[in-house]
């Protein structure tokens, strides 16, 4: 399927590995010109080289922390007029309601709520002027099904979801489409760290913890960055113009719900 976005320009945050890289690769496969962001320069350079070689597209990089104003400004200087924005940031550390501090909350809100909101605010005017834009925010399945030990993520990402719900409907008439992707368990470094912590706390091996995680899902496995990236690329495509303000859950059916 031709997604109709060849030659479009995209900013992809946290695009050097994991789900962000999965999205970047699928956009590159569709012919999109990329500006990739991540904090770690070495991994970012390696990813950019690999994507450019594999898909023959132009890939620029910006090593910066987009949770800071300085980092966001650096990203927007590199690509001031993106047609596509993919926001993404690593989740805050685990912790339940009794253990997290005010500083923990402020950091989580800054990374997982304010940073994507401020990036959207910066790029939406240009998209409106050009009468075309796609924004995909990578959030979490915890928005629909809260995870007790991830209260920081539950709260901060839900705030972002509320902002998108209103904003998406205000800008859709201008051809600017905003949606959220809610990943469940996927083969990422973050999942491995959570499994390691769980295994240690319960006194089981990492292999046992991983097998239990897989068994809990209706598919008998976890998701892959490749299939996640494909879903994101579709939401960035010419065919997504009537999909507005939605929260697409990619969790293999883990959330047991009729609607």
UniProtKB/TrEMBL annotation:
InterPro entries, A to Z: NAD(P)-bd_dom_sf, SDR, SDR_fam
A UniProt-annotated Pfam family: adh_short_C2
Domain of life (superkingdom): Bacteria
Family per record: Belongs to the short-chain dehydrogenases/reductases (SDR) family.
Protein name (Swiss-Prot/TrEMBL): Short-chain dehydrogenase
């Amino acid at each position: 399927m031709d997604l109709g976005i060849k030659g479009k320009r995209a900013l992809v945050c946290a695009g050097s590995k994991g789900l962000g890289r999965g999205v970047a690769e699928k956009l590159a496969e569709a012919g999109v010109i990329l500006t990739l962001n991540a904090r770690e320069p070495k991994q970012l350079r390696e990813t950019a080289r690999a994507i450019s070689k594999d898909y023959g597209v132009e890939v620029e990089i910006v090593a910066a922390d987009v949770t800071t104003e300085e980092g966001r400004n650096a990203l927007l200087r590199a690509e001031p007029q993106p047609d596509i924005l993919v926001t993404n940031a690593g989740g805050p550390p685990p912790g339940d309601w009794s253990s997290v501090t005010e500083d923990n909350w402020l950091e989580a809100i800054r990374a997982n709520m304010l940073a994507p909101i401020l990036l959207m605010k910066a790029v939406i005017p240009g998209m409106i002027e050009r009468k075309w834009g796609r924004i995909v925010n990578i959030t979490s399945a915890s928005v629909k099904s809260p995870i007790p030990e991830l209260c920081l993520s539950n709260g901060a990402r839900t705030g972002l979801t509320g902002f998108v719900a209103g904003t998406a409907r205000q800008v859709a008439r201008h051809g600017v489409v905003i949606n959220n992707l809610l990943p469940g368990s996927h083969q990422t470094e973050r999942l491995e760290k959570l499994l390691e912590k769980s295994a240690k706390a319960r006194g089981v091996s990492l292999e046992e913890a991983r097998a239990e995680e897989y068994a809990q899902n209706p598919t008998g496995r976890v998701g892959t960055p490749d299939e996640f990236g494909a879903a994101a690329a579709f939401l960035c495509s010419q065919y997504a113009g009537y999909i507005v303000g939605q929260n697409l859950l990619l969790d293999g059916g883990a959330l047991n719900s009729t609607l």
